[in-house]
């Protein structure tokens, strides 16, 4: 397959869309990576953010070209705020090489660190309003924490493809402007079963892929 | 019997947890430890049991934490722990945390009924090893004083097996060793991120330890006001008062002695960049009788005995290697003078002590934490160190597995 690789293939107007459904079991998944902390706050704002950060909202669909190497540009909006002692959003997807900005919007110091192999960093304590950019050079999952507030956690999904999206509130998704070719479609969620499948799009088609996610055993 | 009660409580709580409508948060950690301590070590001085001096390796504790939201207002908090009994045999099961909590978000307060973390002081809330810079507890939270929770002060405490049917009594710590207390705890965010008040009505003062027969007629309070004057500065002010009478020895019941402890403390934390500087000043005042020795007699006149402690910790996280920190800690525990026979011959009721600690910690992964610290603990009076032939030294390394 590598003998057919073409760099920067021109985009055709192919689309992949669909809907992600959840089973009753998957609604009850335990949110992993959340640490217990005595006296952790439960303010109205935190509850609102927790609602936005619900595991079912953190499903990403990515398409990985199999017969060409896509050109990677930095993801335009790659910002994680720290508000009400919560990372918001608590999961983002970016292309490899993107600088993710961390913004402290709380009235106290926050820290951001990662212990993920090949992506370890520690930005130190940052005051209110501080914006810090951290370049992400590793492909895969990068787990984040706050050294000061142990119950804060977030994840960066760093991808080697520009073709990805997060599902909408109703579970639907759409990825447009895909060049012709074969792709591996991957569906990622921190706690649900991983899914991948090969698909082929060409000639401006609209490919539909619906899926029901089960909890990871 | 005690263990049966705990297991029964757990079984009763299980249905609540299983059928809770909201989120259930489960966390756990287990700690293994390698230590080397000098020959004059003792659990009551440096948390090393005398049978574990020299090189020693073993499990230190296993903990499970449960936070179950029953609905928007109520939640259940549990912590189950297996640990070494007095630092020696790994067979002690405890439920150090077991409460039901009511939270009122509109008015920024919560009420916890049951066993909660002691409100007093800066260290009690740091139960998770990830939050603890050093392995040892601070002196004021762990060093045993010559005051018994049964009969008051005795200067020979811990040195003679003079009691009726008990082992040698080693007195109490200035602040409750396990950092938990039973009662009703109010946690009020007066102004979120600016001012917080914790106030607990409990069935004992802040220094009760490992109680087997805690009397319900004992009562006390402990409290802490935390202020955040600026972004990088947290300041706490703590106050506690209460009775710490705990048990009777054999047929001898000293219940009417009404042993009292009053404590006041202030603590601070400054954090900026990769630095954290924290400290605490504590003063304890005991109103206790003197227990005569060798005869079992209690002098009627109560004495006021004071104890003072200071702690300063400096921690630096190395920016070049995420997860690695270095820390230095200094502590001082001092005792007031008393005049036993009112002969104008006041003397200290115990020996002042210093502690120096160096620590290194490394979060290997999200679920593995390695810590190592070396501690020197000399008496202020250098002649005592030479008399004891060796300064108390302790090296402890722990590997914590987090779930």
Task: Please provide a written account of the structure.
The complex is a heterodimer of chains A (217) and B (403). Chain A is mainly beta. Chain A has a single domain, classed as Immunoglobulin-like (Sandwich), CATH 2.60.40.420. Helices cover 6% and strands 42% of the residues of chain A. Chain A contains two helices and 19 strands. In chain A, the strands form five sheets. Chain A has a five-stranded mixed beta sheet, with no helix packed on it. In chain A, strands 2, 15, 18 and 19 form a four-stranded mixed beta sheet that branches. A four-stranded antiparallel beta sheet of chain A has the order 14-3-16-17, with no helix packed on it. In chain A, a hairpin with a 2-residue loop joins strand 5 and strand 6. By secondary structure, chain B is mainly beta. Chain B has a single domain, classed as Porin, CATH 2.40.160. Chain B is 8% helix and 51% strand. In chain B, the strands form three sheets. In chain B, strands 1-2-3-4-5-8-9-10-11-12-13-14-15-18-19-20 form a 16-stranded antiparallel beta barrel. The radius of gyration of chain B is 21 Å and the shape is globular. Classes of the chains: A mainly beta (217), B mainly beta (403). The interface between A and B is large, with 33 and 38 residues.
């Amino acid at each position: 397959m590598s003998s057919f690789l073409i760099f920067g293939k021109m985009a055709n107007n192919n689309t992949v869309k669909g809907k992600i459904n959840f089973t009753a079991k998957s609604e009850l998944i335990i949110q992993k990576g959340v640490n217990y902390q005595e006296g952790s706050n439960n303010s109205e704002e935190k509850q609102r953010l927790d609602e936005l950060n619900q595991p079912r909202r953190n499903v990403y669909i990515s398409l990985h070209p199999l017969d060409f190497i896509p050109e990677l540009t930095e993801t335009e909006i790659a910002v994680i705020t720290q508000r009400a002692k919560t990372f918001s959003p608590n999961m983002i997807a970016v292309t490899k090489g993107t600088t993710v900005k961390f913004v402290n919007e709380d009235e106290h110091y926050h820290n951001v660190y990662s212990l993920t192999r090949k992506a370890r960093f520690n930005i130190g304590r940052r005051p209110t309003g501080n914006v810090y950019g951290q370049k992400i050079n590793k492909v895969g999952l990068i787990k984040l924490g706050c050294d000061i507030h142990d119950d804060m956690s977030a994840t960066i999904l760093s991808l080697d493809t520009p073709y990805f999206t997060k599902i909408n509130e109703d579970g639907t998704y759409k990825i447009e402007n895909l060049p012709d070719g074969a792709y591996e479609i991957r569906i990622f969620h921190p706690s649900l079963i991983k899914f991948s499948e090969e698909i082929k799009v060409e000639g401006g088609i609209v490919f539909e892929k619906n899926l029901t996610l089960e909890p990871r055993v | 019997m005690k263990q049966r009660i705990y297991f029964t409580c757990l079984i009763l709580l299980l249905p609540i947890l299983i059928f809770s409508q909201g989120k259930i948060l489960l966390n756990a950690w287990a700690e293994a430890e390698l230590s080397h301590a000098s020959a004059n070590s003792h659990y009551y001085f440096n948390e090393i049991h005398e049978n574990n001096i020299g090189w020693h390796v073993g499990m230190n504790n296993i903990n499970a934490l449960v936070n179950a939201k029953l609905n928007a207002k109520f939640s259940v908090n549990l912590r189950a722990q297996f640990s070494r009994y007095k630092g020696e045999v790994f067979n002690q099961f405890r439920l150090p945390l077991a409460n039901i909590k009511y939270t009122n978000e509109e008015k920024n307060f919560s009420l916890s009924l049951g066993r909660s973390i002691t409100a007093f002081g800066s260290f009690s809330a740091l139960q998770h090893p990830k939050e603890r810079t050093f392995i040892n507890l601070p002196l004021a939270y762990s060093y045993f004083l010559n005051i018994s929770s049964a009969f008051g002060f005795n200067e020979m405490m811990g040195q003679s097996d003079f009691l009726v049917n008990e082992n040698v009594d080693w007195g109490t710590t200035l602040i409750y060793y396990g950092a938990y207390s039973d009662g009703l705890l109010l946690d009020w965010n007066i102004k979120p991120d600016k001012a917080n008040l914790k106030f607990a009505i409990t069935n004992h003062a802040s220094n009760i330890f490992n109680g087997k027969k805690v009397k319900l007629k004992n009562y006390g309070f402990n409290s802490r006001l935390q202020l955040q004057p600026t972004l990088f500065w947290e300041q706490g002010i703590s106050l506690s008062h209460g009775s710490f009478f705990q048990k009777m020895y054999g047929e001898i019941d000293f219940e009417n002695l009404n042993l009292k402890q009053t404590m006041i403390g202030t603590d601070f934390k400054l954090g900026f960049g990769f630095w954290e500087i924290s400290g605490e000043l504590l003063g304890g005042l005991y109103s206790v009788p003197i227990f005569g020795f060798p005869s079992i007699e209690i002098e009627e006149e109560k004495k006021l005995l004071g104890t003072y402690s200071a702690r300063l910790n400096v921690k630096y996280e190395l920016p070049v290697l995420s997860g690695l920190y270095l820390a230095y800690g200094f502590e001082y525990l001092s005792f007031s003078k008393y005049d036993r026979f009112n002969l104008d011959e006041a003397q200290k009721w115990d020996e002042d002590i210093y502690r120096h600690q160096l620590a290194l910690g490394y979060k290997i992964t999200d679920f593995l934490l390695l810590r190592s610290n070396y501690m020197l603990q000399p008496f202020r009076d250098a002649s005592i160190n030479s008399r004891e032939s060796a300064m108390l030294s302790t090296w402890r390394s722990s590997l914590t597995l987090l779930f």
